[in-house]
Amino acid sequence: MNIDKAKKLVRDTGIRLLKAGLIARSWGNISQRIDEDHFVITPTGRTYEDLRPDEIVRVNRHDLTHVGRIKPSYEKGLHAAAYELRSDIGAVIHTHQLQASVVAAAHREVPILDTEMKKIIGGPVYCTSYSLPGTKKLIRMAIEALDRSGSKAVLLANHGTLCIGKDMEDAFNVALVLERVCKKFIEQEFLKISGKRSASREAIREWYVQNFGVEAKT
């Protein structure tokens, strides 16, 4: 991908994530592969509202060197490892989105909950053990979890998420669906602990027939 186009795409995706409530201020980081050896990534310490495309940093995937005076995100090694994992990965998004971060803080894995999750994320979402951000241990655990699950997302314990995709739109959708299914997972676990049960499809159908006299269409 053309580097200028990639930088603009990263900046624009930051704004989309901000509006979707999946990132805040300068938290998280976004990258786009531009060729076999390089990717561009958000810089450290820049807010997404004020970030300019020319502040996005080009990084060498192999040795993590970068071009220019602006420093890339300190999570650049995590992004590089994701691109190393699979050649079809075109974009990587790391967030601290609320619902997913709650599940990550609980060190829980999210099973496949519905067909959209299966289609977009591709499998269950595993959670790593805790390790400090930016460390080789965290990188290794995150990549191993992605590899084992076969999915496009992993939870980083007490930290956040890593979402990958064949392109930026794919990675963005993974982050969106992940937030929704994590909310669903939290609600299900809360109901389980409370001893209450949500209504079954059969109970809903029986109620509908009793009140409206016709079979509900499902």
Automatic annotation (TrEMBL):
Pfam families: Aldolase_II. SUPFAM superfamilies: AraD/HMP-PK domain-like (SSF53639). InterPro entries: Aldolase_class_II_sugar_metab (IPR050197), Aldolase_II/adducin_N (IPR001303), Aldolase_II/adducin_N_sf (IPR036409). Keywords: Lyase, Metal-binding. The keyword Lyase applies. It comes from the Bacteria. Residues 8-186 form the Class II aldolase/adducin N-terminal domain. GO terms for biological process: pentose catabolic process. GO terms for molecular function: aldehyde-lyase activity; metal ion binding. Transmembrane segments: none annotated. GO terms for cellular component: cytosol. The keyword RNA-binding does not apply. This is L-ribulose-5-phosphate 4-epimerase. It comes from Leptospira broomii serovar Hurstbridge str. 5399.
